[in-house]
Design brief:
47% strand, Aminopeptidase
């Protein structure tokens, strides 16, 4: 697992976190991130996710990076689309959160599709 803080350039304030869970035997990794509510919609998640996907392909030599988001959070899906990921499917009622079963969307990008 590779974890990184997401901070503001000016002042270094912590505003979120991002990471990838690498599965070396399959040359793939799952991307995950969070951004504090006051910082939503400012491009921080997109910038951090794009940088980590670049690291996954250029430094770690991976073949595939994938991510999931709850259907109740479409903004996260837009982040994944902006970094070049493609929608691969829906996991119906896959995760139980606060006594509710939620659907999640799967997105992925392959090394051959990636453009730095």
């Amino acid at each position: 697992m590779h974890h990184f803080a997401i901070t503001l350039r000016a002042g270094g304030e912590l505003i979120g976190a991002i990471g990838i869970d690498v599965e070396p035997e399959h040359a793939r990794a799952e991307l995950g991130y969070w951004i504090g509510v006051p910082y939503w919609g400012r491009g921080y998640a997109t910038e951090a996710a794009a940088a980590l996907v670049t690291r996954a392909f250029e430094v770690l030599g991976l073949q595939r990076v994938f991510a999931y988001h709850f259907t109740t959070n479409p903004a996260s899906g837009r982040v994944l689309q902006k970094i070049g990921m493609r929608h691969e499917g829906t996991r119906r009622k896959h995760t139980r959160k606060w006594d509710e079963y939620l659907d999640s969307e799967c997105y992925a990008i392959l090394r051959a599709e990636w453009r730095p």
